[in-house]
Amino acid sequence: MAGAIIWCVSVFGSAALLYGIGVYAGRSEKPMHFWSGSEVKPEEILDIPSYNRENARMWKLYSLWFWVAGLGYFVNAYAAVIILVIGSTAGGALLVARYLRIEKKYRVKK
Fold this sequence. Notes:
By secondary structure, this protein is an all-alpha fold. It has one domain (2-106). The chain has 3 helices and no strands. The protein has helices at 2-27, 48-72, 77-106. The protein is elongated, with a radius of gyration of 16 Å.
């Protein structure tokens, strides 16, 4: 029982945080940055609302791995752990690749 509580708090908390980043990105008027410590200047982005919408969608979709793993725990704990590991590693790589495509699409060409 304690393991299920710890699992739910950890996984659903992470999912909610990632989804929250997506909500924040979608509502932000300034361009959303991806890398820690980086800043995207408004004059570097062609269409800020579209850029932020795509960023928001990216983060919300990434949170799905965590929601599925959290719910999957109650069906099969081993499968849920596998989903979480794959989602965190391969999903993280896909997240970075997707952001780089978004940035390339909306960044002002020099």
